[in-house]
Specification:
The chain is an alpha+beta fold. The chain is about 30% helix and about 25% strand. Bound molecules: zinc ion. Zinc ion binds next to loops.
């Protein structure tokens, strides 16, 4: 087993290394805050431009909560918006060499069994309206499919936590 060295705790506050540590820490924090903010803005712009009659009016730009990219899992920065009743919107950009950046907006709806969620990638505003119309009849839940103990939905897809 590799021995893990204790961090040098007795650095002089003004030493070059201590200063470098502090700079890197600050850069990290800055870029994370920027990433979150940019993810929130991108999501807000997308719904404003493409869902102007629905989400653009129902959501404030402040409703979006940005998440930093997880490079290890190749996840781009994203933003989620809590809609109430257990429903969420998730927005991210899919980036590929051929298509460049593509907005991906997903409606996340809880299953009636309460064990998981179903993701609906929204194609456009008509798509959203027909989904919402259906959900209005089912109280904002997707009816459970499959066995009683097994849910066809995805358990906790984004490890979402209420802000
Ligand atoms: Zn279920």
């Amino acid at each position: 087993m590799t021995e893990i060295l204790e961090p040098a705790a007795d650095l002089d506050d003004d030493s070059p290394l201590a200063l470098l540590f502090a700079m890197v820490d600050e850069l990290d924090t800055c870029s994370e805050a920027e990433q979150r903010e940019e993810a929130e803005l991108t999501a807000a712009h997308h719904v404003y431009n493409h869902y102007g009659s629905t989400l653009g009016q129902a959501l404030d730009p402040d409703d979006w909560s940005g998440k930093v990219a997880v490079t290890a899992n190749r996840l781009e920065a994203s933003a989620t918006a809590w809609l109430d009743g257990g429903l969420w919107l998730h927005h991210t950009l899919h980036i590929s060499e051929n298509d460049g950046a593509r907005d991906v907006l997903t409606l996340i709806v809880p299953c009636t069994c309460g064990r998981g969620y179903v993701d609906y990638e929204l194609a456009n505003e008509e798509d959203l309206i027909s989904l919402i119309a259906g959900l209005r009849r089912t109280g904002g839940r997707v009816s459970h499919e499959g066995d009683e103990d097994e849910c066809a939905s995805i358990p906790d897809p984004h490890a979402l936590t209420k802000k």
